[in-house]
Amino acid sequence: MNELAINGGPKVRTKPWPPRGKRFDQRELKQLKEALAQNTLFYMYGRKTKEMCKKMARICGAKHVVACSSGSASLHGAIKACGVGPGDEVITSPITDAGTILGVIYEGALPVFADIDPLSYNITPKTVAARITSRTRAVIVVHLAGCPADIKPIVRMCKRRGIRVIEDCAQSWGARVGSRWVGTFGDIGCFSLNDFKHIGAGDGGLIVTNDEELYKLSWLSIDKCYDRMGIKRCLPFVAPNYRITELQSAVAIAQLGKVRGITSKRHRLGVRLTEKLAGIPGIRPHKVIKGGYGTYWFYLIQIDSDVLGVDPATFVKAVNAEGIPGGTGYVGPVYLSYEYLRKKTAFSHSRWPFTLARKSLKYGPGYCPNAETVMRSSLNFGIREELSAREIDDTAAAVRKVAAYYRSKR
Ligand SMILES: *Cc1c(COP(=O)(O)O)cnc(C)c1O
Q1: For the CA of 205, the nearest atom of ligand 1
Q2: Does residue 149 fall inside a structural domain?
Q3: Which residue among 194, 198, 199, 296 has the greatest number of ligand 1 atoms within 8 angstroms of its CB, and so is best to mutate?
Q4: What is the pLDDT of the chain when averaged over all its residues?
């Protein structure tokens, strides 16, 4: 067997990794020029935001689209539109971005975390059901890393109980279940246009829905509760200014034109990596649900330390030495890592909204066992549209080689 590169053996790959490609070109520039030529950058007066929302509706298959300033803003807007208020519980995933729960906390509601499936890293119908109480007002289903959660049964279950479903699709542009985009199954879908996502406009967020009422409430929720269509400004509730500008929408129009190409490329790369990793003892590829179409924002591999006798950090170091970039884990369960959740310090000198929580709601070690363990045993490989089959095959070859080495050492 080949000696590992980390021990002085030959590398699986000597060629450098492809550099980051050019994200913005003449198409974005043309849109930006047109936006500036309007002589207004306000979304209500210009045409770019309206056009961008229409384009998103057409692409994702939702009836209505609201644009705002960020993915976090879209989620906060969705929470408000769904009528989540003080003391309500919102079930979501503990493995996610801060933006998923910030709106929940701002509205005085309590995030309740459901455990994740150990191989798809998403919450499941079962783990959500286990967290439902009489206080549950909504569920935010995070489709992590571009791979769809088992959304259909979750929506069915929640509908029966009058619980709203919001889909956090910030990492899952173009991901589908069957032929339908994630974000169109629940009551509201939320997307991010931040600089790190599949497509970006610097910052920006989109709210998609098929419900006329939620659509109207979403606009109010992200624009100071100003009724831009009517004359009356009676402000029935408080809402932040999360407006998008025409400049962001202009860039987003051009980026939406590229989303199909970007996501289908990432899909092919992820599927190929899964195929190439199949059958390696001790290695478990990133799982996609049956009928799901993943668009791989990143790719996690579980390593079984019982089989390989090695920890993920040591394993990935050996893979890196073979000429393959990669790291370990993603984020830890937020109820353990966020100080404001552990110490109830969200709002300065007050312990609100945790003062409204039922006694039995307690965050701490053991709350979501899968979430706590799998993030400690996973490797994280970046998938980007600039990669080719070559990089995927080299990644799999390096993982195979390193796994074989450590198995032989047992
Ligand atoms: C990026 C992200 C968000 C927040 O998006 P921003 O545009 O950065 O506010 C929310 N949820 C998830 C899962 C994300 O990855």
Answers
A1: 7
A2: yes
A3: 194
A4: 97
Is the torsion defined by CA of 140, 143, 144, 149 positive or negative?
positive
Rounded distance from Cα 170 to ligand 1 centre (Å): 5
State the distance from the centre of ligand 1 to the C-alpha of 192, rounded, in angstroms. 6
pLDDT per residue as tens digits for the range 212-265? 999 999 999 999 999 987 777 889 999 999 999 999 999 999 999 999 999 999
Please state, for a pLDDT cut of 70, what percent of the chain lies above it. Answer: 100
Give the 3-state secondary structure of residue 242.
coil
Pair of tokens at residue 104? 């929940």
Tokens of 371: 């979430």
Evaluate whether residue 357 is within a structural domain.
no
- Summarize the confidence of residues 387-402 as an average pLDDT: 98
Q: Rounded to 10 degrees, what is the CA torsion of 222, 111, 149, 221? A: -10
Enclosing H/E stretch for 66? strand 64-68
70 CA: nearest ligand 1 atom:
7
pLDDT at 233: 81
- Does residue 155 fall inside a structural domain? yes
Residue 297 lies in a domain: no
Domain count, the chain: 1
Size of the chain, expressed as the number of residues it contains? 410
Measured from CB, residues less than 6 Å from any atom of ligand 1 are 70-72, 96-97, 99-100, 142, 168, 170-171, 192, 194, 203, 205
CATH of the domain at 161: 3.40.640.10
Condensed to tens digits (0 to 9), the pLDDT of residues 27-63 reads 999 999 999 999 999 999 999 999 999 999 999 999 9
Question: Does 1 score more than 80 pLDDT?
Answer: no
Closest ligand 1 atom to the C-alpha of 192? 7
| Full residue range of the structural domain in which residue 164 is found | 26-258
Q: Is the preceding peptide bond at 353 cis, omega within 30 degrees of 0?
A: yes
